[in-house]
User: Which sequence fits this backbone?
């Protein structure tokens, strides 16, 4: 399980405005939930919160490591391209390191999200513990 | 009584500290989050290895991210980076509070950024999640 170089099963996420509304809470003067405001700030429509991509990575890591991600997991992400309402993201991971940690093994995964145009929108790494 | 000011790069000070209000994590919070991120793992509604349902590990990120909203009027910004350490599972029924401190601010390519360290703890003071985030502020 979780050998170096292993590709994790990818996740697909189609992000609706209603989901962004549920995540961010609807309010005026928000680039996430007020389309006119998002346009005034130079975007073509509302943006998903970057944090939503951390949730997708969390889902992928929990599928891989289970309780060892929920308690003992880490994540470091950079949001490099905006994600818009209506975008379709795919979430990817490749195991890049295993190292001993207090009698267990920490599994480090390179993670990223891509939009429907093949552009990376978030990049980083996540880790968790296995026995 | 809080006197809210508009958040600007100039107003924000390195070392400035924030504390959120206490929030009760409800099953509805967990369900709403599951809908928002389309992740319906059975641990979020049934038994988990931690003895009962738990919440998504990232559920409390927004409480930390919104720390500034308790003192400033925050109209827009872009989230540039996020780091998490998930130390303990989040269980529905727990009351949580986030604390944060601005540890850096800088300008890069003419754009202002702020970096905040945070931790989120339960009512016993057990830290559940900690990390740091970097946000770009929009100039008017």
Assistant:
């Amino acid at each position: 399980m979780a050998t170096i170089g292993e590709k994790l099963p990818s996740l697909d996420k189609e992000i609706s405005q209603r989901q962004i509304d549920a995540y961010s809470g609807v309010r005026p003067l928000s680039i996430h939930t007020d389309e006119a405001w998002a346009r005034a700030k130079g975007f073509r429509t509302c943006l998903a919160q970057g944090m939503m991509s951390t949730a997708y990575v969390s889902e992928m890591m929990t599928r891989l490591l289970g309780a060892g991600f929920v308690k003992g997991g880490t994540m470091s992400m950079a949001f490099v391209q905006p994600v818009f309402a209506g975008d379709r993201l795919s979430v990817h991971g490749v195991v890049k390191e295993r190292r001993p940690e207090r009698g267990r093994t920490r599994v480090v995964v390179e993670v990223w999200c891509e939009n429907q145009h093949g552009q990376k929108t978030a990049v980083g790494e996540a880790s968790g513990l296995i026995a | 009584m809080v006197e809210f000011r508009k958040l600007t790069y100039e107003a924000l000070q390195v070392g400035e500290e924030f504390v959120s209000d206490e929030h009760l994590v409800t099953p509805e919070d967990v369900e709403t989050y599951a809908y928002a991120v389309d992740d319906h793992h059975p641990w979020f509604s049934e038994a988990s290895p931690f003895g009962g349902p738990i919440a998504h590990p990232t559920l409390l990120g927004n409480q930390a991210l919104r720390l500034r909203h308790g003192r400033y009027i925050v109209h827009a910004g872009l989230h540039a980076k996020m780091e998490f350490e998930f130390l303990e599972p989040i269980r529905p029924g727990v009351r949580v509070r986030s604390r944060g401190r601005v540890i850096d601010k800088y300008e890069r390519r003419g754009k202002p950024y702020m970096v905040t360290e945070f931790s989120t703890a339960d009512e016993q003071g057990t830290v559940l999640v900690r990390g740091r985030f970097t946000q770009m502020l929009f100039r008017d």
About this structure: The beta strands of chain B are 5-6, 17-19, 23-24, 72-73, 77-86, 95-108, 111-122, 127-137. The mean pLDDT of chain B is 94. Residues 34 and 53 of chain B are 13 Å apart (CA to CA). Residues 27-37 of chain B form the longest helix (11 residues).
